[in-house]
Specification:
183 residues; alpha+beta; six-stranded antiparallel sheet; three-stranded antiparallel sheet; 23% helix; elongated
Length: 183
């Protein structure tokens, strides 16, 4: 863990000095310096005092870097093609277990010739176009603003039944980390 660097970054962002932190917490400047350089590990009680002084939740100080906010700017999105129909997939953002994508489906195209299944749960929002979706024995048509969700372990299929490209916002949750496209 790199708690010290996190504390230092927050302190500097808030334009606080080590002396101000020490005045508020009762800690010595030498100790705070060692904390910020990761040369010592403070107790939870000490971390709580520092977090209160910095006005951040204690839990934030304990987060691993990969568990913090992940920013993906529009121009930095990874774009891939998926399936035999080469659906355009814009990867918006993700965590270890959740992935959010914008998927563009050309007219008449689908997520595959036959329904497919995989681990996880999916939530879909139709941003643009007209979509047909089926899962097992259930099937429905959806238009802009409609949404649907399902457990992806049951074979499913999504098809653009409109005359224009359709765009879906899809969020996929999996217990294990994502390693591949699931569309």
């Amino acid at each position: 863990m790199d708690i010290g660097s996190t504390i230092r970054a927050i302190r500097k962002r808030k334009r606080m000095t080590i002396a101000q932190i020490c005045d508020a917490t009762g800690l010595s400047q030498g100790f705070m310096s060692q904390v910020e350089t990761n040369k010592t590990s403070p107790s939870i009680a000490t971390l709580e005092s520092i977090a209160n002084t910095l006005k951040v939740p204690l839990a934030y100080l304990l987060l691993q870097k990969e568990d913090r906010m992940n920013i993906v700017r529009k121009e930095e999105r990874m774009i891939t093609r998926s399936g035999t129909e080469h659906l355009k997939v814009e990867h918006l953002s993700s965590t270890k277990n959740v992935r959010m994508m914008l998927v563009e489906i050309p007219p008449g195209a689908s997520t595959g010739e036959v329904p497919h299944a995989h681990e996880g749960e999916e939530v879909h929002v139709v941003i643009k176009g007209k979509i047909y979706a089926e899962q097992g024995e259930d099937a429905a048509e959806f238009e802009e603003g409609d949404s649907f969700s399902w457990n992806a372990c049951t074979p499913h299929l999504v098809k653009n039944i409109g005359e224009e490209p359709a765009t879906l916002l899809i969020t996929v949750y999996r217990e294990s980390e994502h390693k591949q496209d699931l569309i």
